[in-house]
Amino acid sequence: MSEPLRVGVLASGSGSNLQALLDRFNLGDDPSARVVLVVGSRPGIRALDRAREAGVRAEVLPATVQNSEEDPEGDEAFLLRRLGAVDVQLVVLAGYLRLIPASVVRAFWGRMINIHPALLPSFGGHGMYGRRVHEAVIDRGCKVSGVTIHFVSEEYDRGPIVAQWPIPVMEDDDSDALAARVLRVEHRLLPAVVSGIARGRLSLSSAGRAEWVPPLCGAETFRAGPDDDVTTRKDG
Ligand code: GAR
Question: What are phi and psi of 150, to 5 degrees?
Fold first, then answer.
């Protein structure tokens, strides 16, 4: 097989999705990809510890950038320099809460994905992350939620959809219970998608649609039952 796809992961919190990638590619036996850099949006987050424990380079946005909430261009030079320095080929936003500057989106167009804990285009957009998403899903009375992985564009949660996996919302769910069920699926779907990309199965059509050959990660591929009954017929 050719050289592993070089993956950079951006994270803002616990990093359990990062761990799923590390477990499959860096610590496990899938040679198709490798996490080579983790960037944290602030110091002290668990994601940075997970990277270091796996022997992966871990860096933090400079304090001046962390504090520029309204100025995403402040992130631009740092991200372009650090991702470029280690030849990152695919960027994964795994619970990363800052807007990606337009120049960085353009530099990695079709090579940057985000994981979101609901079925986009519902329950996405600015301010919709983590627990807030699950609370909104439950408040609306949805019977189905899910996981979406999409290419990153200049707007929050609006880029071409790469993969989705539906998950039932149970009558007595609170946001913690739903988040836990969704996370279990995220931890399977994200590594499967990265592996599929590394194997050259995903392309972005001229119409701006993500296309898999052979197909991957549609509702016909994955089934998710309540709680631990999260099953898949094939996950790439
Ligand atoms: C995940 O549920 C991810 O989908 C979500 O943040 C969590 C990060 O968990 N991302 C968003 O809400 C982005 N809009 P993790 O740090 O344990 O991987």
Answer: -140, 155
Residue whose token pair is 């280690």? 86
Output the ligand 1 site: residues, CB below 6 A: 11, 13-17, 94-95, 115-117, 129-130, 133, 183, 186
Residue 4 confidence (pLDDT)? 98
Question: What is the residue with the minimal CA distance to atom 5 of ligand 1?
Answer: 95
Domain harbouring 25, CATH code: 3.40.50.170
Q: What is the maximum span of the chain, computed from C-alpha positions, in angstroms?
A: 49
Q: Is 158 a domain residue? A: yes
Query: Structural domain tally of the chain?
Result: 1
What is the total residue count of the chain? 236
Ligand 1 centre to CA of 2 (Å) is 31
The 10s digit of each residue's pLDDT in 141-176 is 999 999 999 999 999 999 999 999 999 999 999 999
| Higher pLDDT pick, 216 / 18 | 18
Ligand 1 atom 1, closest CA: 95
Q: Rounded CA gap, 222 and 100, in Å?
A: 30
